[in-house]
């Protein structure tokens, strides 16, 4: 019975999913209204102190009931299961990928890696301005290899540690201003760096898998991606507070096995890239394999006499404690967003918007607006809608929509996986409103990067 159910699920997921245009139904309008209300509550998280995952999870449940009723009305109830299965698979890939990245970061933090890095940065005499640029450069350089989400989490952990921890940041306005600017810079740099690599972002991966741009073709986005990050980074650097991080009073040292954990994390990223590149398997599978390796090494840490010396102060090492410390509000938020947007897509809204853009406004204008739309909704379903519509675009235009979908999410904190993940990791520091204050600077970089790309590929509006 179980095998039969699984077989039918895989069969339905392999069939082409073409949403019906049900946007004229009053119930569909209700679904849009529910999504708008839920997203408004997400935006107001700082004001009403309601975790961002709660409204979107409730909205997702209601929207899919509306989808089920709408499709039952036209006698196509089997399509609902296919659409829902597709969206759940997309979420499962993202959930497991994120869970591994967060667990590794938590473990490196527990082993003292970030405290040691903080001590090294301070000992080298780097100012807050210097650390701002170092983390930005590293985010831009690492994200094409690791991916923008993992890179953003890693660099933000460094910033928070350098600034003295979350409690110290919230207690001091000057330190908080630095942390906010550094986090905004990291999000922009990670998204920009991820735009010129198939492995840098989920949207670039989708474009590459669809055969619209070759593996090496993405390097053509490097100049515009660099401009996209540098312009807001230079602007924000003028508003950075002066000073240097305060040194910790207690001695900073690495715990036993810290370097091995860092090595395993690098190897896990290599596995994620290799699984996709050589075996055409989801990157998530490589990440989960890496998590298994960390669990095996965690068993060694738990029973090692050398590790016991380090762990006596806080209890023996347990890998499941690091799993539990993952930012579950962020992980559940992704569930809600993917399901909400997927439900609206099943009702025909994404296809309708894409058709309006490319059918009426023209390729260049449409591709620019795709980036703006991805900041509000999410770049993954937006790019999925564009690829499903398969407009007749030149190589330069496919690169343009890849650029805008990738970096457009930097306009708002909820527009990219990197931004949403940082909202969870730096809760109370990096928020929707704190990012919004610098959206004008990010927008200048967005516009400039588009003009650079259009100049290189001789495109016009």
UniProtKB/TrEMBL annotation:
Residues 40-406 form the Citrate transporter-like domain. It is found in: Membrane. Signal peptide: none annotated. GO terms for molecular function: antiporter activity. The chain crosses the membrane at residues 24-44, 56-76, 88-105, 126-146, 152-171, 178-199, 219-242, 254-273, 331-350, 356-377, 398-418, 438-457. GO terms for cellular component: membrane. Keywords: Antiport, Ion transport, Membrane, Sodium, Sodium transport, Transmembrane, Transmembrane helix, Transport. GO terms for biological process: sodium ion transport. The keyword Membrane applies. It is a multi-pass membrane protein. InterPro entries: Cit_transptr-like_dom, NhaD-like. Its main location: membrane. The keyword Ion transport applies. Belongs to the NhaD Na(+)/H(+) (TC 2.A.62) antiporter family. PANTHER family: SODIUM/PROTON ANTIPORTER 1-RELATED, SODIUM_PROTON ANTIPORTER 1-RELATED. NCBIfam families: NhaD_1 (NF038006). This is Sodium:proton antiporter. It comes from Leucothrix arctica.
């Amino acid at each position: 019975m179980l095998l039969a159910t699984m077989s039918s699920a895989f069969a339905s997921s392999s069939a082409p999913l073409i949403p019906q245009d049900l946007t004229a139904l009053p119930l569909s309008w209700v679904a849009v209204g529910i999504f708008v209300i839920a997203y408004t509550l997400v935006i107001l998280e700082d004001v009403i102190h309601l975790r961002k995952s709660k409204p979107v999870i409730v909205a997702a449940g209601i929207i899919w009931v509306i989808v089920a009723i709408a499709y039952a009305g036209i006698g196509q109830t089997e399509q609902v299961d296919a659409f829902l299965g597709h969206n759940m698979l997309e979420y499962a890939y993202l959930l497991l990928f994120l869970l591994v990245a967060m667990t590794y970061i938590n473990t490196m933090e527990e082993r003292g890696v970030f405290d040691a890095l903080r001590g090294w940065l301070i000992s080298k005499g780097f100012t807050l301005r210097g650390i701002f640029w170092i983390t930005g450069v590293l985010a831009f350089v690492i994200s094409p290899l690791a991916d923008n989400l993992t890179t953003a989490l890693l660099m933000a952990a460094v910033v928070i540690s350098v600034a003295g921890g979350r409690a110290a940041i919230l207690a001091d306005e000057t330190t908080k201003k630095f942390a906010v600017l550094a986090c905004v810079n990291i999000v922009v740099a990670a998204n920009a760096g991820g735009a010129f690599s198939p492995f840098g972002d989920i949207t670039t991966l989708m474009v590459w898998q669809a055969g619209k741009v070759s593996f090496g073709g993405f390097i053509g986005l490097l100049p515009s991606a660099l401009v996209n990050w540098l312009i807001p980074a230079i602007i924000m650097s003028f508003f950075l507070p002066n000073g240097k991080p305060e040194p910790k009073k207690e001695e900073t040292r690495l715990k036993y096995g810290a370097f091995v954990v860092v090595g395993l994390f690098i190897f896990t990223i290599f596995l994620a890239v290799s699984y996709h590149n050589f075996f055409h398997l989801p990157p998530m599978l490589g990440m989960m394999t890496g998590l298994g390796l960390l669990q095996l090494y965690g068993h060694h840490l738990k029973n090692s006499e050398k590790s016991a010396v380090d762990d006596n102060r806080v209890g023996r090492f347990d890998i499941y404690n690091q799993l539990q410390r993952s930012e579950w509000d962020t992980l559940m938020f992704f569930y809600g967003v993917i399901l909400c947007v997927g439900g609206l897509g099943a009702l025909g809204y994404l296809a309708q918007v894409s058709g309006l853009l490319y059918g009426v406004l023209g390729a260049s204008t449409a591709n620019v607006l795709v980036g703006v739309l991805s900041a509000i909704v999410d770049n993954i379903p937006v790019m999925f809608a564009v690829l499903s519509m398969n407009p007749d675009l030149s190589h330069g235009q496919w690169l343009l929509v890849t650029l805008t979908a990738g970096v457009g999410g930097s306009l708002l904190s909820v527009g990219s996986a990197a931004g949403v993940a940082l909202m969870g990791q730096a809760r109370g520091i990096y928020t929707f409103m704190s990012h919004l204050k610098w959206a004008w600077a990010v927008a200048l970089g967005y516009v400039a990067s588009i003009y650079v790309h259009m100049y290189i590929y001789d495109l016009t509006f």
